Amino acid sequence: MSNKVSMQQLQDRLPELLDQVIKTGEEYVVQRDGKDCAVIVNARHWRRRTVGQRLDALGAAYRLPGPKQTRVEKLLAMRIKRPLTLREQRELRALLRECDAIMARRSAALDMCP
Predict the structure, then answer these.
(1) How many CB atoms within 10 Å of residue 40?
(2) In a structure prediction context, what are the per-residue pLDDT tens digits for the chain, which is 114 residues long?
(3) 95, 72 Cβ separation under 8 angstroms
(4) H or E stretch at 91
(5) CB of 37 within 8 A of CB of 91?
(6) What's the CA gap between 53 and 71, in Å, rounded?
(7) Mind giving me the DSSP string for 12-78?
(8) pLDDT of amino acid 45
(9) Rounded Cα gap, residues 91 and 60, in angstroms
(10) DSSP code, position 3
């Protein structure tokens, strides 16, 4: 959740707000005349967001499709409750191999990101 601050509050409390952003990851939306005009966000979180967006923009080869992601999560949860059948084990292994391949492509793409 983002906290809203006015321009005056920003000017009066900038060092304190920056400390909060760094320590807790809180975000602050700066308002001018009651309208949102800027956001103060932790640099690490911002980088993570922007890199993730760039990787996702590369296309389907760089992310697991939603139904497959849901299936992986379901199989992993089932594995905690009971042993998986041989068919489920094979399916999970295949999905995890696909995840590994996607992660390798994302990693290689990260090396090329500025």
Answers:
(1) 19
(2) 679 999 999 999 999 999 999 999 899 999 999 999 999 999 888 888 888 788 778 888 888 899 999 999 999 999 999 999 999 999 999 999 999 999 898 888 877 765
(3) yes
(4) helix 86-112
(5) no
(6) 23
(7) HHHHHHHHHHHHH--EEEEEETTEEEEEE--HHHHHHHHHHHHHHHT-GGGS--HHHHHHHHHHHHH
(8) 85
(9) 20
(10) E
